[in-house]
TrEMBL record, chains A, B:
PANTHER family: 2-HYDROXYACID DEHYDROGENASE-RELATED, GLYOXYLATE REDUCTASE_HYDROXYPYRUVATE REDUCTASE. This is D-isomer specific 2-hydroxyacid dehydrogenase NAD-binding domain-containing protein. Coiled coil: none annotated. It comes from the Eukaryota. It comes from Tulasnella calospora MUT 4182.
């Protein structure tokens, strides 16, 4: 009977999908991240392992599992916690859960851009601390930049580091806000063609004012954008791509939004840039080193940073769909069937 | 030389527009709401009065001003602080500032819907209190309903109490979120035709999944909507239109958003409904009795209410445009010229 190791209970529906099979199921019993030692202890002889992004899948865990291991399934779109090369060299398949979370993350991207621009956290704190009666309504109270051209300006540029599914969903949401130009830079797997960019603009021409979508350099991305969304993959090649040289080139009224990977941003450099007023504000759903982010973290202390605890995909429907897909990836991997959504290694 | 009374400094640009004229300008000198006694004292003999929504324009103030008064200009889209009938009976014109704030308020409507659904205030508080390391990432942590169909459901209905400019701008923004149906009820000045509703749907058909826009009863609005935006005028005729009978009929997963007028909602009934779970959450930019809303207010105490201090139009560009328009309305009114934007009394 194939043994599967599951690092977290993923809800009754997803667990039932796995239990339908004649597997020996070993599941971490507590409602918190599995202890590393427990995972290592229980990995031996597994044919499948299901993890969340809290769990490191590295040489040590794979060695403990041994040659029986056929598939790893992660309930996440990110795979920075998984050593891809170690899996590839052992011919272990990797299942993951992109696509189903695209809308939920794009929604949070828009929410964070608005919250950062419109000083939402400050507004909430004024109300919660009983300050509203004293602050009242003032002609320029709480004012920040508008996420769009505003009543008197003519253009608004949205910028994207990475232009995959979530970036495209985010840009579509911004069109009725009045975005006129969109720029992106992408060092990913393939370069989009200019024809694809033109087709995107033409598709939505009747709906808003988007005139242009184009690839730019990283420096141009910094200089031209009124809002920048970071939606590139993590890992060493993109680590701290957003640091002082980028931040210095931004517009003083611009908003930086990171709904992607914490490692993309040099936290100290961003806190310093916000303090110096190089950009207006930042909205962050992820921070390097999370969840070990305390009240001493410079971005938690910054009044111009809006920090959320990685809730991008956190809608009931989306997480249920992710759990479902992670369960089906695990089952298929163990049974030797094609994975519903497999990460293709190069 | 015509005398004008100004209840608040509206920024250098708007003030310069007024100062270009040979007026005697009397302006409240402090950076807070003008004292009522000061306004009454200084109103005598005015030809124009410029106010914000903090200032009551009633029989007492108009009598103090006397028969010289030609125009009142308010830097707001709302006019509940102005006794329209008193102005009408004295043939005093009213200038106001709609349109220029449509986008800024629609932006906040979307932001509040997202913040309420996605538990943003709770997320912020976890990070700010240093709780992130303990909470970590959990499969269903912070989960709320999705502002759209989600990966597995087929439909999402946006509802509107009032379907004027701001509602329409809000609905346009929701289309890329995947809204499939939109319903509204409107007891306003004129009823939209079914042809107008069909034309709206057809205009945006290529951009999203919106299939239908239609007028419904208040009960149907409550029962059918996954999110309800309150964007109707205030005043006695709509006071507490959102109370227990409406709230009881809502979906348990629905979001209520009030970016409009505080008086539309019975605060005690809403706090009770949230406590009982009749709806999922509420996002409020306005509350009856604001800004006198303290930490003892039931909606400030409710963990399911997201309360912001009336920042709907608070972008630098929008408030500057409102101040500009308010200044031009005042000047035109005093000079006997047509007001750039006049409130048409019936």
């Amino acid at each position: 009977m194939p043994k599967v190791l599951i690092s977290r209970h993923l809800g009754a529906d997803a667990m039932a999908l796995i239990a339908e099979n004649t597997f020996q199921i070993v599941i971490w019993p507590e409602d918190r991240t599995a202890d590393r030692a427990w995972l290592l202890e229980n990995a031996s002889g597994c044919q499948g392992i299901l993890v969340t992004l809290n769990d490191k899948v590295d040489e040590e865990l794979l060695s403990k599992a041994g040659p029986s291991l056929k598939a790893v399934s992660t309930m996440s779109v990110g795979y920075e916690h998984v050593r891809i090369q170690e899996l590839a060299s052992r011919s272990i398949k990797l299942g993951y859960t992109p696509d189903v979370l695209t809308d939920a993350v794009a929604d949070v991207a828009i929410m964070l851009a608005l919250m950062a621009a419109r000083n939402a956290a400050y507004g909430l704190s004024i109300v919660q601390s009983g300050g509203w009666p004293n602050v009242g309504w003032a002609p320029f109270g709480f004012c920040g930049p508008q996420l769009g051209p505003g009543p008197t300006t003519k253009s608004f540029t949205a910028g994207f580091l990475g232009f995959g599914r979530i970036s495209q969903a985010t840009l579509r949401r911004l069109i009725p806000f009045g975005v006129t130009h969109a720029v992106y830079t992408d060092s990913g797997r393939g370069r989009r063609t200019e024809d694809e960019d033109t087709a995107f603009v033409e598709q939505y021409a009747a709906f808003g004012q988007l005139k242009q979508l184009k690839w730019v350099s990283l420096d141009e991305l910094a200089a031209e954008s009124d809002v920048v969304f970071l939606l590139a993959p993590g890992g060493e090649s993109t680590r701290h791509i957003i640091s002082t040289p980028f931040l210095q080139k931004m517009k003083k009224t611009a908003i930086l939004v990171n709904p992607g990977r914490g490692t993309l941003v040099d936290s100290d450099a961003l806190a310093d840039a916000l303090d110096k007023g190089w950009l207006y504000a930042a909205g962050l759903d992820v921070i390097e080193g999370e969840p070990n982010v305390t009240t001493e973290h410079p971005l938690v202390k910054s009044p111009r940073a809006t920090v959320l605890p990685h809730i991008g995909s956190a809608t009931t429907e989306t997480r249920a769909a992710m759990a479902d897909l992670a369960a089906r990836n695990l089952v298929a991997g163990v049974l030797g069937e094609p994975l519903p959504v497999e990460y293709m290694m190069h």
